[in-house]
Amino acid sequence: MKEILKALINVFLKMPQGFVVTLKHVFKKPVTLDYPREKKPMAPRYRGRHYLERYEDGTERCVCCGLCAAACPADAIYMEPEETPNGERKAKVYEINLLRCIFCGFCEEACPEEAIFLGQEYEFSDFNRDSFIWRKEDMLVPHPRKDNPFKRIIRRVRRVYGVPDAAR
Amino acid sequence: MILNKESVALMQKKASQYPRRKSGILPALTIAYRQVGHLNDQIYREIAKAINVPYVEVAEAATFYTMFPKQPTGKYLIQVCHNISCALLGADSLVEYLEQKLGIKKGETTKDNLFTLISVECLGSCATAPMMQINMDYYENLTRAKVDKILEELRAKA
Amino acid sequence: MSTSTTTQPAVKMVTLTINDQSVTVPKGTTVLQAALGAGIHIPTFCWHPKLKSVGACRICYVEIEKMPKLQVSCATEATDGMVVKTESDIVKRGRKAVLEFILANHPLDCPTCDKGGECDLQNLTFAHGLDDSRFDFLKRRHIVPGVPSTFDDLRIGPEIMLNRNRCILCYKCVRSNKEAFGEYDIGAFERGNAMEINAAPGEQVANPFSGNLVEICPVGALTNSDWRYKIRVWLTQTTPSIDIFNSSGSNILFYKEDHKNRIFRTISRRNDEIDDGWITDVARYGYQLVHSPDRLQKPLMKKGSKQVPVEWEEAVAFVARRLAEIDDTKGCVCIGGLASPTLDLDSLHSFSKFMRKVIGTNNLDFRIDYRSLPEKPDSAFSTLSSQPFTIAEIDTSDVIFVFGSDLVKEHPNEYLRIRKARNFGRPLVYSVNSFNVKSADVADREFIYAPGTEEVFINGLCLAAIEENPGLSGADGLKRKISPADLNSAAKTCGVSAEDLKALARTLINGKKISFIVGDQVSLSRDREVIAAALCNLNRLVGITSRGQMAALARYADSIGAEKLGLIPNPHPDVKRALTDLWGGFPEMAGYHTEGMFSQMLKGELDAMVILGANPVAMYPDHEAVAETFEKLDFLVVADLFETETTAMADVVLPLASWTEFAGRYVNLEGRIQKAERAIKPLYESKPAYAILADIAAAARKPLFSSAREREEEIEKVLACTTVRPWPGDYLDVRPPAIDKDPAYPIMLIIGDDPHHRCYVTEKAASLVKFCSDAYIELSPELAEKFKVEDGDAVRVESKYGKLMAPVKVSRVLEGDVVFLPRNFSVTRANSLVSRKARIDWVRINKVSG
């Protein structure tokens, strides 16, 4: 008898309560996104794909010093330096294997020239493994983000330790 | 050959007086400077050959001593001391005055090839500052009027 | 500085305390050396173990009790009872201050600097330095005019780049250049803030030891274009190896990258017994020939008139079949073999066994550029060249006698040794030659004898010794055996005055420890047998070897090894016995040496040749005659790294692996066995010589060795035999042969190696080609004046046997009617001018107008 009463209370009292909650959410803004038509804005310090920077005059910042490759815990960076006609040093080959990359951002931290940084993009998928080896040209593209909050931190750390800003 | 026979002979004589030939480099440079008025690579080579020392050692010694001019100078090489005593007593304005008077900048030679103006480190005559050395002579306790007079005299002599 | 205590018995010892540790060192040692010897590290920039101390950098500060200020340990002599502290706070403060001053002007361009990762300054700054600079002003910058670059790099030599901004003015480069190498092409100019290291105005740093300057630079001021911007040092691995371009076998270290299978650079691996840490540029840049695109990639076989690439199996089977055919039809007497003395022991022994056991012939040799070869096995020259010689003994010799050798070109390490001996001791050095040589700058006196009078000069020396000391044993016996038998006429013939001869003889008699070096002017002379006999007489009379050493030095990396393994038709009896024991037999036939093989070939009595890593057509005297000889061969198989004149005539060409591509052992001129480890995998399809021979032997169904272990054991047993031949028991006859001279050819021609090249292979090394890319005629200023030629003018050189054209280089050392021609370039084959029959190569030259 007691059980029957309990069930009746559940059906006529508790269930409408639940429906009310559901009904409330119908009029609320949905928490999901209509991915891939709509994209979630990433946190400012999110670490996505790599970009290589240029100076204002268009020359590459990267001097191919190898510190990013040395700092890389996944051994994802490969580079070969070369000499430019006027005797400066630049990268002949600069490749990042995005399949190996763990997006830790150590390369960004190690870079003395502020040449490499990790952007916001996170969508990597392809049918071909080779396309995950990004060459220098793939990374030397204009990038959407002007200011990198992480770089700001690096600069502050440098100031603290008295290392001059690498930017010329 | 830029060096004449007398200079070479004198260099060789001087060099032979030292236990090490290398010691003959400085007298040789002085002799060459007295003859030519300045020094250059060709002269270093000739000295090296004359006293039989490596060419590079002659060049090293010559470039170390800033007292040897490495470019042709005018007939009178005006060396104004710019070290502390002279500077306190107006060496800078003296140089400015000379520049204005001769119409040249420091390190240049006048068009008539008469004067070259440079400023140098202490010449050891601090008690009589400000002072300058023209060729081998000291001119001390300088004032503008004195400088005018000196330049006039030199012009007249030339 | 001499470390040898055996020759200076009464060395006073001092005891001092360094960091509470008691250290006893010989008097005269610096505090720094005492500390380093006790295993206490003191940082240094300007100090180098083989140079005199200058105390220029001041980073080696130590605290010495009772001294008011910090002292530079590299210039402070250790004294008894000294109490030194190297790690106290005040020392650390001092070092920090020194670093701060150095860094005031040193740019922070480590990311682009090739020294980054192995830089002394970087390491020290990391260990001691401040993380901030108190110098607010701009750093001093030496701008290179005319180069739109922010890097300020200046090329001061074919291989050397200089960045003066990075220079910390330790003067190590300048000092080593002047002190250790005797070269004067780099200097320190200006003074104060403007001071800079630079090449001498208008000159290039291109001396044969210039690579060392880069190696000892403590910062990245001097870098070489060989290593410039190629790879980061921490990405490379190192392999210890041996310099095979030189008979002293200096120790080197290859920096290679395993994934790329590529060597990136060579640095020295200091071995005080041999090289003192200095290596020649040939040793440093020679590895580049390994990566030359001209390397033979596949075996080539002559099909029709063309050589076409084939597979290894086909080539090996063909060689085995052809050799067997010739063996069957004409007999093994008709097969001969030549192996390069730069091959390793395994290859040489395999070659010996292949020729003697598989083919059964005794026609084999390793002497590839000699004019004449001794007929008798116990000849005077064999005695002379088999004598023991120790490079390090030069340091402590008080008389050093260099006879007939252009040391810089032939034995650069020994040249540096003599220079060091002169820097740190007072030996008497004599250089005796038939022409002026660069290495005479270490000599107290240089003597020039008339061309082709080596034996007369030595006879004169003997006669002078008798006059100086009539009591010398057997003087009368000697006088009967030599001509001319009186001092004055000998002096007149050889052109060195009797007084000079007497003075020389006196030093040889009175010398306490003598190093007597005999060089190429004797080794490569037609009459070397006579000269060697004269030298044997001199030794017997004066007793040089009882108070030192005397030897005709080996010329190639493994010459002594080849000699010890018996790679000559008539090996030393002990070696022959050992080989017979090992193999159960030894070919009965007498066998022909190189010269003999060539004459047999010319007669048509030798039909097949096996050549390993040698190019006799280009290296042996008389180019045309040798080429003609080789054309008569039925079958020629050549294994080499590159296509050469000899491979062009071959029926089968096999790609040989270089010494970097397999582990090999080499015996240097002292008889020291040294190992060169494998740095990279064999490139293309090349194989080491021992593997090639094993393949051919296997194809002929007569396997050489059952295992590598067996080969090693055999080599060990053979090497255990001594090959030092005893000095002759009596004075030898020395009758100088007449010197042929045609007045139409008045000028003496000297053929040898350019200081930046060795043999025929180094022209494939890109860096060495930058130093010297083509043959030249080096002639004395007098001759240049006579023919009115200047540097770069073309002259025609003509001898009785051939002629060639080459640009002129006016020499700084040669005097008189002498010209020098390098033999290293395939475009100009120097051997076409010379003949095996002539003692002296006489030529005439004339200017090519227009």
UniProtKB/TrEMBL annotation, chain A:
The keyword Translocase appears for this protein: yes
Transmembrane segments: none
Cofactor: [4Fe-4S] cluster
Protein localization: Cell membrane
Single GO cellular component term: plasma membrane
Cofactor binding description: Binds 2 [4Fe-4S] clusters per subunit.
Residues engaged in binding [4Fe-4S] cluster 2: 72, 101, 104, 107
Any one Gene Ontology BP term: aerobic respiration
Keyword Iron-sulfur annotated: yes
Residues that hold [4Fe-4S] cluster 1 according to the record: 62, 65, 68, 111
Domain called 4Fe-4S ferredoxin-type: residue spans: 53-82, 92-121
Recorded GO MF terms: 4 iron, 4 sulfur cluster binding; iron ion binding; NADH dehydrogenase (quinone) (non-electrogenic) activity; quinone binding
Purpose of the protein: NDH-1 shuttles electrons from NADH, via FMN and iron-sulfur (Fe-S) centers, to quinones in the respiratory chain. The immediate electron acceptor for the enzyme in this species is believed to be ubiquinone. Couples the redox reaction to proton translocation (for every two electrons transferred, four hydrogen ions are translocated across the cytoplasmic membrane), and thus conserves the redox energy in a proton gradient.
Protein name: NADH-quinone oxidoreductase subunit I
Organism: candidate division GN15 bacterium
UniProtKB/TrEMBL annotation, chain B:
Top-level taxon: Bacteria
UniProt xrefs under CDD domains: TRX_Fd_NuoE (cd03064)
Cofactor: [2Fe-2S] cluster
Keywords per UniProt: 2Fe-2S, Iron, Iron-sulfur, Metal-binding
Cofactor annotation remark: Binds 1 [2Fe-2S] cluster.
Keyword GTP-binding among record annotations: no
Binding site for [2Fe-2S] cluster: 81, 86, 122, 126
An example Gene Ontology molecular-function term: metal ion binding
Keyword Membrane: no
Family indicated by similarity: Belongs to the complex I 24 kDa subunit family.
Entry protein name: NADH-quinone oxidoreductase subunit NuoE
Organism name: candidate division GN15 bacterium
TrEMBL record, chain C:
Stretch forming the signal peptide: none
Metal-binding as UniProt keyword: yes
One Pfam entry name: Fer4_Nqo3
Molecular function GO terms recorded: 2 iron, 2 sulfur cluster binding; 4 iron, 4 sulfur cluster binding; metal ion binding; molybdopterin cofactor binding; NADH dehydrogenase (ubiquinone) activity; NADH dehydrogenase activity; quinone binding
InterPro entries the record matches: 2Fe-2S_ferredoxin-like_sf (IPR036010), 2Fe-2S_ferredoxin-type (IPR001041), Asp_de-COase-like_dom_sf (IPR009010), MoPterin_dinucl-bd_dom (IPR006657), Mopterin_OxRdtase (IPR006656), Mopterin_OxRdtase_4Fe-4S_dom (IPR006963), Mopterin_OxRdtase_prok_CS (IPR006655), NADH_UbQ_OxRdtase_75kDa_su_CS (IPR000283)
Start and end residues of each 4Fe-4S His(Cys)3-ligated-type domain: 90-129
Metal-binding among keywords: yes
PROSITE patterns per UniProt: 2FE2S_FER_2, 4FE4S_HC3, 4FE4S_MOW_BIS_MGD, COMPLEX1_75K_1, COMPLEX1_75K_2, MOLYBDOPTERIN_PROK_2
Domain 2Fe-2S ferredoxin-type positions: 12-90
Residue intervals of the 4Fe-4S Mo/W bis-MGD-type domain: 236-294
Co-factor requirement: [2Fe-2S] cluster; [4Fe-4S] cluster
Keywords recorded for this protein, A-Z: 2Fe-2S, 4Fe-4S, Iron, Iron-sulfur, Metal-binding, NAD, Quinone, Translocase
GO biological process, any: ATP synthesis coupled electron transport
Catalytic activity: a quinone + NADH + 5 H(+)(in) = a quinol + NAD(+) + 4 H(+)(out)
GO CC list: membrane
SUPFAM superfamilies named among the record's database cross-references: 2Fe-2S ferredoxin-like, ADC-like, Formate dehydrogenase/DMSO reductase, domains 1-3
Listed PANTHER family: NADH-QUINONE OXIDOREDUCTASE SUBUNIT G, RESPIRATORY NITRATE REDUCTASE
Recorded family membership: Belongs to the complex I 75 kDa subunit family.
NCBIfam families documented for this protein: NuoG
Name of the protein in its database record: NADH dehydrogenase (Quinone) subunit G
Organism: candidate division GN15 bacterium
